[in-house]
Each structure stands twice: as structure tokens, then as C-alpha cells.
TrEMBL record:
Family, as annotated: Belongs to the universal stress protein A family.
Protein name per the record: Universal stress protein
Chain ranges of the UspA domain: 2-139, 162-287
Domain of life: Bacteria
Source organism: Serinibacter arcticus
CDD domains (UniProt xref): USP-like (cd00293)
Pfam annotation, one family: Usp
Length: 288
């Protein structure tokens, strides 16, 4: 299989290129470099259409030359196939490429309106992430290559046990250590004052024990050590919960969607979206 990189030099493409390069190298996969030129009007006979096609071809040639050259530097030895598509929709073109090329994963860059180091879904990436039938990686804005080392699976009782196995399999195929974490949020004043802080602590401790127990029960089937490879990370808000993990360069965060159906698609539930928003590392979202 291959790694599909959605590449545009101007729209988060460099981050996607940087992460896609290290992922393809880690997995020993070829790269499908897909560049989309947006057609803003319907094709029609005449000079206008001919001029557009000439401009589109020149734009695609320049973009793909740049992308291939950067990939050769970032991931020497990785085979690259380029694909130029004219379309009225970037997201639609990328999704068509997923269907036709059947990659193991799609790599996108974060939106340009996000802060450096932050994972942000722009409008195009959001549509792709909500419609993809294969895992989608979103690289933080400004991502720079670093050897991959660990995949942290965000898993909870709301997820199917098979999801943890799927994430672990993906991680090991990428040469990564795999761990699993259940993220949780507690809020001061969850109960009326007369209940008391001690009762709140007891409720949270009970939830934490239950969450950890569920993780440990699923860990062996995913090839994880139920004592060493699982944990609960919690805080008063989702940012604090995500920050409770000891993140290091080369880490990835993986999560599943919470909107499965007969057709496998990625659909970010509200909790997954909040966790993604605060992730300091690239995020892999698996179809539900």
C-alpha cells in the first residue's frame, strides 16, 4: 500500500509533506503525491479554457517538482508518484484519489489560521476527515521532520475493542511503540457544595478505576501490556487532560471516530475534536 499526501505549497502542504515523508519512510511505503488545481468555472470551448489548462499544467508542474525535490531530501529512497487533478473541489478530488489509489493513510496539513505547532482542521481538511474511508493524519502547522517513536492511542469505553487493535497494528507497521490512554475531564464544583469535595474525589476515582480497567481488559488483544502500556490522563479541561501525557518529539496521537455506520468513514465526535484541538503532535483519525 501507499501513503497519500495531499500537497499544495501554499495551503499547509509543507507540513503534510514533512510528516508524510517520515511516515512513508518508517512504513517502507511509496508516496502518492496528489496536487489539485481548482477550476473556478465550467469548462467551455474557447481561449479561456485553453488558457486555464495551460496555467493549470504549469502550476501543477511547478508544485510537483517542488514536492518531489523536497521528498527526495526528507525521505531519500522513497518512491514517489505524482498526480495532478483539476477539480472544482479540492476535498472531492482528494477523496476520489483515495478511492482510486487505495492508500493505507491520507496525510493533510493543518489550516493556515491555526497557531504554529497546533493541529487545526481547515475547511478542506475538515471535509476530507469527515468523509474518508481510510485513516487520516493531520500534521500540526509548521511541522518539521523528526524520527517517529511512539503512537498513543486515545481509547475509551465508547470505542469498540477492535479499534485499539487496529491502531496498535498501524503503529507497529510504522515501527512505533504503542501505548493507550483514556482521556477524561473533571470540573470543580461538579456537585452542589453540600455534597463535599471528598465525594467528588470518590466519584472521579471510581471513574478512573473503571476506565483503566476497561483499557486493561482490551490491551492483550491489541498486543499491549495491561500494566505498562495503558494509562488514564485527566484534568479540569481537555487541554490539561491532553497535557497530562508526557509528549515527546516523534510521538503521534491516534483516535477513532464516534460516528460509525455501515460504510467506514471518519467522523469526529465532539470529544475527539476537542482532544485533537489540543494535541501538540500529529493526529491520526481512524474511520468508525
Amino acid at each position: 500500500m501507499t501513503v497519500l499526501i495531499a500537497y499544495s505549497p501554499e495551503k499547509g502542504g509543507r507540513s503534510a509533506l514533512a510528516f508524510g515523508a517520515v511516515l512513508a519512510q518508517a512504513r517502507g511505503e511509496d508516496v502518492e503525491l496528489v496536487h489539485v488545481v481548482v477550476r473556478t468555472w465550467h469548462a467551455s470551448p474557447g481561449n479561456g479554457d485553453a488558457e486555464f489548462r495551460q496555467w493549470a499544467a504549469e502550476s501543477a508542474d511547478e508544485a510537483t517538482r517542488t514536492g518531489v525535490a523536497e521528498l527526495a531530501t526528507l525521505a531519500p529512497g522513497v518512491a514517489v508518484r505524482t498526480h495532478h487533478v483539476e477539480s472544482r473541489s479540492i476535498a472531492g478530488a482528494i477523496l476520489d484519489a483515495v478511492e482510486n489509489l487505495e492508500p493505507c493513510v491520507v496525510v493533510l496539513g493543518s489550516g493556515q489560521d491555526g497557531a504554529l505547532g497546533q493541529v487545526t482542521l481547515g475547511a478542506t481538511a475538515n471535509k476530507i476527515a469527515h468523509s474518508s474511508t481510510v485513516p487520516v493524519v493531520v500534521a500540526p502547522r509548521g511541522y518539521r521532520t523528526v524520527p517517529l517513536r511512539r503512537l498513543v492511542a486515545a481509547w475509551s469505553e465508547a470505542d469498540e475493542p477492535e479499534l485499539l487493535t487496529e491502531i496498535a497494528t498501524f503503529g507497529r507497521a510504522s515501527g512505533l511503540a504503542v501505548e493507550a490512554v483514556t482521556f477524561g475531564r473533571y470540573t470543580d464544583g461538579m456537585y452542589p457544595p453540600e455534597v463535599g469535595l471528598e465525594a467528588e474525589d470518590e466519584v472521579f476515582a471510581a471513574w478512573s478505576d473503571e476506565a483503566l480497567g476497561a483499557l486493561r481488559a482490551c490491551a492483550p488483544a491489541a498486543g499491549l501490556d495491561p500494566n505498562e502500556d495503558v494509562a488514564v490522563a485527566a484534568g479540569p479541561d481537555w487541554r490539561s487532560a491532553v497535557d497530562a501525557v508526557d509528549w515527546e518529539p516523534g510521538d503521534l496521537l491516534a483516535m477513532g471516530s464516534h460516528g460509525g455506520g455501515v460504510i467506514r468513514r471518519v467522523f469526529l465526535g465532539s470529544t475527539a475534536a476537542k482532544i485533537m484541538r489540543h494535541s501538540p503532535v500529529p493526529v491520526v483519525v481512524f474511520p468508525g
